[in-house]
Description:
The structure holds 2 protein chains of 2 kinds.
Chain A: H1 5-31, H2 37-44, E1 48-55, H3 56-66, E2 82-92, E3 105-118, E4 123-125, E5 141-143, E6 149-152, H4 173-178
Parallel strand pairs in A: 1-3
Antiparallel strand pairs in A: 2-3, 4-6, 5-6
Chain B: E1 7-13, E2 19-21, E3 26-32
Antiparallel strand pairs in B: 2-3
Amino acid sequence: MIKDISYFTNLIRRRLNESCLWDKLIQIESINSSCFQEAHKRFLYSNYSVKVIANVNLVQEMICGYDSEWDISRTSERKDPLILFATGVMKQQPTVRAFLGRVVEEKFHMQALALTIIPGISLVPERLKDLVHPQVAPLQLNEGVKEGYFYVNLSMNQEFSNGPEFYENTTNREELGKIKFIY
Amino acid sequence: MQSVITSTFVGVFFPHSIEFDRNNDKGYFLLYEPYKA
């Protein structure tokens, strides 16, 4: 069966959204854990990883390709998750079936030949919108680029000391009090 | 089992978690499975 190119681009895009969601869940969790229990539970089920073994030069190239001012000696400065395309020869590891805890299982070891970092856009599915804590919500909830997702801008360093942005309009209150509503 | 051809894996990567082996000029890190919605 031949599938056209749009099928594959959609597939990749969906993959990316999934990984972005994953990253966002971690960030939101650190702000407010109680209202994200459902999401947290789901996050815990993500439990396998690929161990990448790469040459230092390759890692340096990867880091410089993403940000030219970033250096291999300062990798510990950034804590944000990124999305990485790793190409190489993968070697499957024996499955340890007793491993059912929170430990992430290494299913494959990869000898990397090419590494590319792409920036992660944080998207959260629509169905989680009701779960957003009011303290988080005013930050910025935008409609996502893709249907069914919304975007939380956590980089806006907003404090909640000055109250909500939507104040009650009291200017017409007296006039409204005089109007009799007939139902 | 080892793949004969090269394959590409898209994963979530944490920059602070890279470990370097200076003697062998290698870097090690984990790529995590993207979360499935």
